[in-house]
From TrEMBL:
It comes from Paenibacillus shunpengii. It catalyses: holo-[ACP] + malonyl-CoA = malonyl-[ACP] + CoA. This is Malonyl CoA-acyl carrier protein transacylase. The lineage of its organism: Bacteria, Bacillati, Bacillota, Bacilli, Bacillales. Keywords: Acyltransferase, Transferase. Residues 7-312 form the Malonyl-CoA:ACP transacylase (MAT) domain.
Length: 313
C-alpha cells in the first residue's frame, strides 16, 4: 500500500441520525457529542439524532452538526490505530481535517463553525442566493460564461464555487445570475445544470463580509502547526503552518473549493488510499471520478469503521 489520505465531507452530507451508532458504542465518540453540547449551550446531539431535518439543514446548525458527527467517527477510527499521511476536507470539512491534524481543538472548532454558519447565513438575505451543479462543462469556458453573465449587472453575479471533479462544477451567486447560467449552460459545453437546495451563495465574493467576521472570530482562537500536511481548499496545496492556515480559512469562505485539484495533488504524492470519514459518500464518488486506480473507503458508521480496520490490519 502507498500513502493514505483522510478526507472529510462538507455541507450537504448531513442526515438525521448520523453517527448515532458510534455515540452509542464508543466512549470517545460520545464525548465528542457531549463536548459540542456543552460548548454550544444547547443539545446539538438531540438535533442530530432526532431532527427535525428542516432545522438540521439550517447552515448555522448543519456546520457544527456535521463537524461533530465527522469527528466522532474519526475518534472511533483513531482508536483502531489507523493513521494518515495527509488530510483534506471539502469546504466545511476542512475544519474536520484540521482537528484530525491537531491544528485546532474540537471544542474551538465547533464554536468557530457555528459562528461561520451564522455569518454565512446572514451575509446575503434569504432567497437571494442560489447554487447549481453543472455537468460536463469545460472549466475555463464556464468561468468565461460566468464573467459574461455577471457583467450584465449587480443582480446577475455568478461565479465558480466548487471545482469538484472532471465534469462536475458547482456555480454560485445571485438567483438571477444562476438562472441565466442554467439557461445558457450549453455555451460552456455542458450537458445540463441542476439547481441545488441551499440557503446562500456560498464560496463567492458575496461572502466577503462573512469572511471578515470569521477572521475576527478566528483571531482569538489558538491554532497549532499541523501534525500532517492538510491540503487547503483555496490553493490545492499542502499547508502546515498555523498562521497560514488561519489566513486560508478566511479566504476559503469566498473562494472556489479546488477539490479536483486537491485529489490530483494527493495522488501525485503517492496517495493510493482515500478514507472518507463522515456521513454520506459524496467525496468517495468525486474521488472515483478523478481516478479509477485509487482505493476509496467510507467510514460513515460503526460497521464500515470495523470493516476498514479489518481490511487495513
Amino acid at each position: 500500500m502507498g500513502k493514505i489520505a483522510f478526507v472529510f465531507p462538507g455541507q450537504g452530507s448531513q442526515a438525521v441520525g448520523m453517527a448515532k451508532d458510534v455515540y452509542d458504542n464508543v466512549t470517545s465518540s460520545r464525548h465528542v457529542f457531549e463536548t459540542a453540547d456543552e460548548k454550544l449551550g444547547f443539545s446539538l446531539s438531540s438535533l442530530i439524532f432526532d431532527g427535525p431535518d428542516t432545522e438540521l439543514k439550517q447552515t448555522k446548525n448543519t456546520q457544527p452538526a456535521l463537524l461533530t458527527a465527522s469527528i466522532a467517527l474519526y475518534e472511533a477510527l483513531r482508536e483502531k490505530g489507523i493513521t494518515a499521511d495527509y488530510a483534506a476536507g471539502h469546504s466545511l470539512g476542512e475544519y474536520s481535517a484540521l482537528v484530525a491534524a491537531g491544528v485546532i481543538s474540537f471544542e474551538d472548532a465547533v464554536a468557530v463553525v457555528r459562528a461561520r454558519g451564522t455569518f454565512m447565513e446572514e451575509a446575503v438575505p434569504g432567497g437571494r442566493g442560489a447554487m447549481a451543479a453543472v455537468l460536463g462543462a469545460d472549466r475555463d469556458q464556464l468561468a468565461q460564461l460566468c464573467e459574461k453573465i455577471s457583467a450584465q449587472g449587480k443582480d446577475s453575479l455568478v461565479e465558480l464555487a466548487n471545482l469538484n471533479s472532471p465534469g462536475q462544477i458547482v456555480v454560485s451567486g445571485l438567483k438571477d445570475g444562476v438562472a441565466q447560467l442554467i439557461d445558457r449552460v450549453k455555451e460552456a459545453g455542458a450537458k445540463r445544470a441542476i439547481p441545488l437546495e441551499v440557503s446562500g451563495p456560498f464560496h463567492t465574493s458575496l461572502m466577503k463580509e462573512a469572511a471578515a467576521r470569521l477572521g475576527d472570530q478566528l483571531s482569538s482562537v489558538e491554532l497549532r502547526d499541523a501534525s500532517i500536511p492538510v491540503v487547503a481548499n483555496v490553493t490545492a496545496e499542502p499547508v502546515t503552518e498555523a498562521e497560514v492556515i488561519r489566513e486560508l480559512l478566511v479566504q476559503q469562505v469566498y473562494s472556489s473549493v479546488k477539490w479536483e485539484d486537491t485529489v490530483e495533488w494527493l495522488i501525485d504524492q503517492g496517495v493510493d488510499t482515500f478514507v472518507e470519514i463522515g456521513p454520506g459518500s459524496v467525496l468517495s464518488g468525486l474521488i472515483k471520478k478523478v481516478s479509477r486506480t485509487v482505493t476509496v473507503y467510507n467510514v460513515n458508521s460503526l460497521d464500515s469503521l470495523n470493516a476498514l480496520a479489518a481490511e487495513l490490519k
